[in-house]
Amino acid sequence: MKILKITNGRIIDPASGRDEIADLWIEDGRIVEESKVQGSKAEAEEIDARGLVVAPGLIDLHVHFREPGQSHKETIGTGAAAAAAGGFTTVVCMPNTNPVADSPSVISWINERAAQTAKINVFCTGAITKGLKGEELAPIGSMKNAGIVAITDDGHCVQNNEVMRRALEYARMFDLPLFDHCQDYSVVGDGIMHEGEWSVRLGLPGWPRIGEELIVMRNILLSELCDAPIHCQHLSSGGSIRLLREAKARGVKISAEICPHHISLTDESLKGYDSNFKMNPPLRTAEDIDLLIGGIADGTIDILASDHAPHAAYEKEVELDHAPFGILGLETEFAVFCDVLIHERKAIGLSRLIEMLTINPARLLRLDRGTLAPGAPADVTILDPDLEWTYDVEKTCSPSRNTPYHGRRFRGRAVRTIVGGRTVWAL
Ligand SMILES: [Zn+2]
Residue 256, Cα to own-chain centre: how many angstroms? Predict the structure, then answer.
């Protein structure tokens, strides 16, 4: 039996309220109490975590690994390697692959591919509607049997409210979380950046806040009507936070996530017309950043995610209007959150940050992960929240290079990633 002992680290397990300097024992791929170790403790492999934080393996429920269909941008294997290098032991892939993940056969293919090539846990979502077209529901029950952990049309947004209502009823029936990329097409049109002073100055079509807020409001009303949860993906507008706060206060089962770029960069970044600042939803203003961070600080927001979206250089290096939306995220995610939320803004503490990257997404996804409780799978991330480092995208595990953070200095980084008791990455 294989035994691993992580010594003298500060163990932070928000799920159990644990925060203490102690040793963590792992046997046969699971967390175990020292008194329950069966094999020879003397033969345990030791990892010294003195001065470091021992946390549950980080979970990101919003990534785009481009298999099947666009493996020149990312494969499940390279995406998983980037995730491991960012401290992530579990990720959830979005369904906008080619073909779209809208059938049990595509889901099974992705899960098999993940089992063969990924060194971390890779789960996948199924599309809400066939082909992400927003018209006809995908076979949600049979996709659940094939192993999806949630449904979403991410990259797209179901515009028809009756289709969305039926999807939510199915999701409730199959006990599957429903995620939504909130974008009202009639309002957003061909907008590519935040509608405001900078879109006017730069002469670029605007993507106004209300394009997001209208769908957040729709989701709140549907969630209330069906008494079923909806999770709003990658919120960018401060106004969305206010809507969410009011809804949660009256008990609506609504939740949401926020991404690193939306709290660390503003629309002004686009003044150089660099497509590495083109996201969907777009970067907004300093005022939005304050409101988003306010939502994180007061508990309106429970979950953080990357929206890791690799694109090849030749696709991004075109006129801004034609460049695809999105950036790499997994390798810089923890660093941005730690730097901005803890060091710079002092908005939350480390335990709360870890909670939002572990047990909260695990609970939403109904996974038995995100905790260091005895018996849990031994997914562990060792963190150094004070480590200063500079991100060099040339060293990324991903074949893509689309990041706005190249050369940026951060404070905070994962230093070792352990999946099922096995180190899959170390600094
Ligand atoms: Zn999206």
Answer: 11
| CA 113–ligand 1 middle distance (angstroms) | 23
Q: 223-248: string of b/e by CB count within 10 Å (b at 16+)?
A: bbebebbbbbbbbbbbbbbbbbbebb
| Residue that is written with structure tokens 């950046």 in the block | 193
Q: Can you read off the two tokens belonging to residue 166?
A: 């039926």
Which among 157, 76, 147, 79 is positioned nearest to 365, based on CA atoms?
147
Helices (H), ranges, 227-277? 238-249, 260-264
Q: Residue 197 is which amino acid?
A: E
Q: What is the pLDDT of residues 290-341, one digit of tens each?
A: 999 999 999 999 999 999 998 888 888 888 888 889 999 999 999 999 999 9
Whether pLDDT at 35 is above 80: yes
Q: How far apart are CA 72 and CA 94, in angstroms?
A: 17
Total-model pTM: 0.97
Whether 87 and 381 have beta carbons less than 8 Å apart is answered as yes
List residues bridging with 425 in a β-sheet. 417
Catalytic residue among 102, 307, 379, 384: 307
- Looking only at the bridges linking them, the beta strands covering 409-419 and 380-390 are antiparallel
Q: Which two tokens stand for residue 286?
A: 């300093």
Ligand 1 geometric centre to CA of 129 (Å): 15
Give me ligand 1 centre to Cα 12, in Å: 31
Q: 181 alpha carbon to ligand 1 midpoint, in Å?
A: 5
Per the annotation, the verdict on 339 as an active-site residue is no
Kind plus residue range of the DSSP H or E element containing 112:
helix 104-117
Phi–psi pair at 208, nearest 5 degrees: -75, 155
d(CA 400, CA 420): 28
Backbone φ and ψ for 156, nearest 5 degrees, come out as -130, 170
Helix (H) / strand (E) element for 16: namely: none
Q: What is the pLDDT of residue 317?
A: 83
- Ligand 1 centroid – CA 321 distance (Å): 18
The count of residues in the chain is 427
Task: Measure the CA–CA gap between 260 and 307, rounded to whole angstroms.
Answer: 9
